[in-house]
Amino acid sequence: MEKRYQALKNIAExxxxxxxxxxDIDHVMRVYNLCLYLARDEPNxxxxxxxxxxxxxxxxxxxxxxxxxxxxxxxxxxxxxxGEILRTLDYPERTIGQVKHCIVSHRFRSHNxxxxxEAKILFDADKLDVIGAIGIARCxxxxxxxxxxLYSNVSIDExxxxxxxxxxxxxxxKIISQHAPNIEFExxxxxxxxxxxxxxxxxxxxxxxxxxxxxxxxxxNDIEFS
Length: 226
Known about the structure:
This protein is mainly alpha-helical. Helices cover 64% and strands 0% of the residues. The chain has 2 domains: 1-112, Hypothetical protein af1432 (Orthogonal Bundle); 130-226, Up-down Bundle (Methane Monooxygenase Hydroxylase, Chain G, domain 1). The protein contains 12 helices and no strands. The chain is globular, with a radius of gyration of 18 Å. The chain starts with a helix and ends with a helix.
């Protein structure tokens, strides 16, 4: 990694030193590497913007996790923080604006949609890291962190109406302790392939989702048996 990107990684690592295991610097580097992998098949990608965005996309995650009111959106705050960081490092305003758009639009549960190629690649890479075997491991890490149940046998339609903002499947969670990994699968993971932008990411997403679907079906069967 070039020295200037290593410096940004160090900044991100410092901001995220108290982050949960599901949203730590390891997640950032997996997304960073996925971005580079997806960019290989996409023409005219600004790799500088993409690398910076990937390294800084979750720097406000700790602030969101510590805000019990649910009013902090880490994507929006991370974009603002990234802008301030890049200005102190004398990055041009054009680059800063592009990076901020990538970061603010990387979130699944958001009304901000990625418009640029770099933003779409970051969105895809971030989503790929929440599905498949890694996705299963991460969602149970989060479940343990917030005291969620292992499995919740509820009506998904009722749950969406009662506990997701605006009663939409991509709405932010109101009371996270009422959430569960299988609900996350039904309300978010299952719909990720429909939101993916790049062809390579779509292929990867479907394979990873098939693995998750089999796992949650097996989990439901094992729980019902007991």
